[in-house]
Amino acid sequence: MTSPVLCKGIDSVGDVRTLSVSTSGELNISSGGSALATEATLATLSGNVTACDTGSVTIASSALPSGASTESTLSAMSAKITTCNTGSVTIASSALPSGASTESTLSSMSAKLPASLGQKTPALSLSSVSPSASSQDSLSVATTSSDTSVSKDTSGYDSVGVIVESSASDTKAGLEWSHDNSNWFFVEQASVVSSVSPADSGTAQNSLYFKVGVLAKYVRVHVYNPDVATASVEVLCNLA
Predict the structure, then answer these.
(1) What CATH number has the domain spanning 133-239?
(2) What is the distance between the alpha carbons of residues 161 and 178, in angstroms, rounded to a whole number?
């Protein structure tokens, strides 16, 4: 059996330490003549670790899924998880529908909302825009015949304004209402268009108008022509 080899080394503070290898191959470091103890298992080694600087622990990018990015250290990651400054969160315009605008940060958006719920004065409430929709239908109504304009869906509107203009002075018109765009009801007497002159006494027009609140989901204009000639009728409808 080969005899143990004895050698010496100098530690970081300049002290001489005796180094020897036992017959079993273990390296013994002596201090003051006695060998230092070695840990036999990872568990005993872990028990003697009193501090771990997570700020210096680096996460290898190879440990992450393909394409994922990481902070260089655990401490940098921890700082961004435990603190979230919503005032500095910016909403990218590319995330909004085309033509939409946004406040640059969540905090500036929040500042424009009312401080509490409930009824407010106009200055403290959210602004709103009343919807409106206009359309014009052209009808050609034969003598002693009737016709109707295209029905309008009044959902979301409060009032209906209608102007009827005819080439004949005895054309009659009235509004009809429906809940299903199939069954129609008339609730007022049909009116005859009358001759109306402009302020400068120019060419008169045969016209009449209706301005009523919404009574059902759908509305249309029913026109009757008692004249001996075909009547050209324009129906202008505005929902508001």
Answers:
(1) 2.60.120.510
(2) 17
Residue 30 in this model has a pLDDT that exceeds 60: no
The candidate with the shortest Cα–Cα distance to 188, out of 208, 168, 207, is 208
The β-bridge partners of 63 are none
Give pLDDT tens digits for 102-116: 565 667 777 777 777
- Which residues pair with residue 212 across a beta bridge? 160
CA distances for 71 relative to 66, 80, 89, 148, angstroms? 15, 9, 19, 70
Confidence at residue 141, expressed as pLDDT on a 0 to 100 scale: 96
Residue ranges per structural domain of the chain: 6-38, 133-239
Residue 122 vs residues 9, 50, 129, 165: alpha-carbon distances, Å: 87, 64, 13, 39
pTM greater than the 0.70 cutoff: no
**Residue bearing tokens 């001759």:** 195
Rounded to 5°, the CA angle 67-69-70 comes to 150
> How far is residue 163's CA from residue 121's CA, in Å, rounded to a whole number?
36
Q: Which residue has the higher pLDDT, 18 or 151?
A: 151
Q: Do residues 219 and 135 lie in contact, with contact meaning Cβ atoms separated by under 8 Å?
A: no
In degrees and rounded to multiples of 5, residue 75 shows phi and psi of -65, -35
pLDDT digits (tens, 9 = 90+) for 137-156: 999 999 999 999 999 999 99
Mean pLDDT of the chain: 77
